[in-house]
Structures are given as structure tokens and as C-alpha cells.
Specification:
The protein is built from 7 helices and 7 strands. By secondary structure, it is an alpha/beta fold. InterPro entries: ZSWIM1-3_RNaseH-like.
Length: 204
């Protein structure tokens, strides 16, 4: 039985027919899979582009979701924040893999839809995402979301190589987490580095 919108019993053929037919106005870039090329699909509706043009100058959020299709292809979503603080998707990217060069190609094709390079991107700690953004949007800063920063800082002290593992170092671990909380509250670059200086003198 063919699914709704399925154009052919072969999924690759069906996808090509959809993206080159009824959905072609939403396709920024489409590279079918072949033995020589990886699958790359970049989708953006007119309203998505309008929102990117209006809100995409400051910060753009990017993250990947897995398990949304039977082939395990990652789905990347790019969002902006509107004037009410709500997240709005402005692009969907489907890739055949998570290699840096594959994502980088998608971002290169997407870049012309941006009004200007955004001030910054916020991502998780995935290095391929970070490297791809830095290659394509070298004018933009790359920020890590606080959840992943906290997660990494929480896990690291429990490892023996950190030097602060074990029950006897509980106070040291608490001090590290307090320090990270203070860094998060810094509203300017100057305050951020001053916080580092204070901590440096405290441990000397």
C-alpha cells in the first residue's frame, strides 16, 4: 500500500518527484543520493524565509533530531526567536549522514537566504555542527547551549583524571558548579573575564 503523498513505491524516486514537483517552491537545495554524492535536502517555505529575514540577524538556533524516519537520516532544524521570545523554525535540513562536509554543503546552499550573517549560532556540543558553521558563517560566533555546558561540567569532575573526584573533593566540585553559575550570569564580555580573574586570585 502506498502512503499519502507517495509518488512511487521506491522512496528515493518518490522523494525526487515530490521535491521536483508539488514541493519544488519550498526546496532551497536538493542533492539525491548516489554512489558519489550524499543525500542533502534543504527546505524553506516563503513564510520561513520571511521570518529568517526579519529575525535572523541576531541569533539562530540549530539542532538535529534522530529517529524521525525509517532510514535514520538526521533532521536539522534552524530556528529564530521572534519579538515575543517564541522559537520559529526557518529551515529544515535532511541529510544522508552527519559528516561535516555534508552539513557544510547544506549550509553553503542555505546562506544566500540570510539577510546578513547572524551575530551568533547556538548549537549543542556536536563538533561537526560547530565546524560547519565556522566554515560557512565565519563572521558569526558559535555558542553552546547552557544545558550541554552544564552537563559536560557536571560529568567531568566525577572522572578520576579531573583531580576532584571522590567524596573528599565534594567541596571542590560544588565550587566549580558555583563558578559556572556565576559565569552564566555575566552580561558582558568584560564581566565574564573579570569573573575569571577573581577566581584565579582566589585559588592562587
Amino acid at each position: 500500500m502506498m502512503r499519502k503523498n507517495q509518488q512511487h513505491k521506491d522512496d528515493a524516486t518518490s522523494t525526487s518527484r515530490l521535491l521536483e514537483g508539488p514541493f519544488k517552491d519550498y526546496v532551497i537545495f536538493y542533492q539525491p543520493y548516489s554512489p558519489q554524492t550524499d543525500l542533502v535536502i534543504v527546505l524553506q517555505t516563503p513564510s520561513m524565509r520571511d521570518n529568517l529575514q526579519e529575525y535572523g540577524r541576531d541569533i539562530v538556533f540549530m539542532d538535529a533530531t534522530h529517529g524521525v524516519n525509517q532510514y535514520g537520516f538526521p533532521l536539522f532544524t534552524l530556528l529564530v526567536r521572534d519579538s515575543h521570545g517564541h522559537g520559529i523554525p526557518v529551515t529544515y535540513i535532511i541529510l544522508g549522514n552527519e559528516k561535516q562536509e555534508t552539513l557544510q554543503l547544506a549550509l553553503e546552499e542555505l546562506k544566500p537566504t540570510f539577510p546578513v550573517p547572524p551575530r551568533c549560532f547556538m548549537v549543542d556540543k556536536d563538533q561537526a555542527e560547530i565546524n560547519s558553521i565556522r566554515k560557512v558563517f565565519n563572521e558569526s560566533d558559535v555558542l553552546l547551549c547552557w544545558y550541554h555546558v552544564t552537563q559536560a561540567v557536571t560529568r567531568w569532575p566525577s572522572r578520576s583524571e579531573s583531580g576532584v573526584s571522590g567524596p573528599e573533593k565534594a567541596d571542590s566540585r560544588a565550587h566549580i558548579m558555583q563558578f559556572m553559575s556565576e559565569l552564566k550570569s555575566c552580561s558582558t564580555v568584560c564581566f565574564y573575564f573579570n569573573c575569571f580573574k577573581v577566581q584565579f586570585y582566589l585559588v592562587m
